[in-house]
Every structure is written in C-alpha cells, then in structure tokens.
Design brief:
Elements (H helix, E strand, L loop, with lengths): L3 H16 L4 H6 L5 E8 L3 E2 L3 H11 L4 E4 L6 E2 L3 E9 H31 L6 E3 L9 H10 L13 E3 L1 H7 L2 H9 L8 E5 L2 H10 L3 E5 L3 H11 L5 E4 L7 H6 L4 E3 L2 H4 L6 E5 L1
Parallel strand pairs: 6-11, 7-8, 8-9, 9-10, 10-11
Antiparallel strand pairs: 1-5, 1-12, 2-4, 3-5
Helix pairs in contact: 1-3, 1-4, 3-4, 4-5, 6-7, 7-8, 8-9
Length: 277
Amino acid sequence: MLDGLYLDNLIRRALEEDIGYRDLTTDSIIGPDHESRGVILVKQQGVIAGMEVARRTFGLLDPRLRFEVLVEDGKAVEPRTVIASIEGPTRAILQGERVALNFLQRMSGIATHARRLCELISGYKARVVDTRKTTPGLRALEKYAVRVGGGSNHRFGLYDGVIIKDNHIVAAGGIRKAVEAVRGKVPHTVRIEVEVQDLEMLAEALDAGADVIMLDNMDLETMKKAVELVGGRVPLEASGGVNEQNIRQVAATGVDYISVGALTHSVRALDISLDLI
C-alpha cells in the first residue's frame, strides 16, 4: 500500500491548488452546520484503484466525515456500481469532491488498462510492466494503480535501477564501455539492463555481460530471432509501440517482459461521480 505521509502531502497540495483560500461557491450557499450523505458511483465497466486516496482526501478536509469503502482496490465493477458512501459536513464533501474524483478516475483508468493488457497475454510467460513515463509528482500513485490492475512495476526512478539506453551508449563510446563503467560503480545486487535496436547490438550486450536486455522498437520477426539467439541466458524486455492490438503477438515471441508507456502517459480516466442523496 502507499505510504500515508506521502499521500497526505500529495493530497494537501492538490487541495490547496483547487480550493486556494476559500471555496467561493460552496461557502456562499452552504452553512457550516449543514450535513449531507452521498455516494461515489462508477458509470462504466472497469477496475477500481485509489479508494484510500479518496478516503484520505475527505478526511484531511474534515475528520468528522464518515467515508465507507464499499468496493476495494483491484475489484472489477459494472456500470452504476456504488463504490463508496460518505456522510457529514456538506462543505467538506463538496470541497473534496473534485480532488478525490480526479485521483480515483485516473488511478482506476490505469488499473483498468493494465488488467486488459494482462488478460490479452494470458497463457504466455510475459509480464506487463510500466515505465517512467508518468505524470510528474504522481508516479507512486500511477505505478500502484498498475499493480492493482495486475501489471508489474519497472524501476521507480533513476535511483533504483540501471538501464543503459542509446544516448548512454553514444556518450560512453559503446555498449561494453558503458556496461563496464556501471559495473564498477553500482552494488553487485543491481541488475544492469541494456537497450538494443538490432541483433548486432544484442550480441554485443550479451558479450558485455548485460543482466537484462531491452529490445527497443524491434519488429516481431527480429524479436523472435532475438529470443532464439539469447536462448534464455538473460531476460528480454520488449519495448516500443506496444498496444492492445499487438501485445499478444509480442508475447508470443517469447519475451519475458513487455513495457507499455501508454499505461501511464495516455491514461483514459474511468467515469466516476459523486452524487448527494
């Protein structure tokens, strides 16, 4: 689960951005003692993620609010499903509505997409993984949503994993030089992944001792040849241009991982609303 301190700090920034110094509309219409009850309703089929974020959003605005989670993260839902109820001071409900829904809709959209991709490659060994192509400041939430949907996380940032990409190779003067430079400076527990674009680079990465190899934007036939050449010596990751239409074909090549940047950089939010009763 997500760290509470991280969540609260993130939510506070979002609330400050939206409310500013006051809610002109709500404060003008609703008295401070007015109370209401409402429900959070999903309007389309999908997978839920972000319930704790929504709960904490309302709790930070007014601890008197009673928020009941009716559908846990990771559950698939049908249209018109009530996933939570909320009761208490009306001002806090209305002030937190947009921020809570923004988090819920985005995270549930990611979880829904991840679940769909995982289902599409069912029966193959490949795992769907995310990338660093995330919304600035929301990476932990978005990667959590990928896990909720059944996908796996790639490295969280530049600090927790090594991937030698094309520009690193150019700057270092070749794959071997780049691998040797990294090998001499990172802990032995850290795996070194190398990005390659063709079979010649693949052979060089293997010879240099890469622990994982990323097949970047390779066509399916070249990818199959790469899998045959490697013969299981190191894990292979397919990356670039993967979507719902071709992911099963990519998985059929025999790769171990399939990274999909669209999971987090092109999110289609799940339609969710909050209705007062």
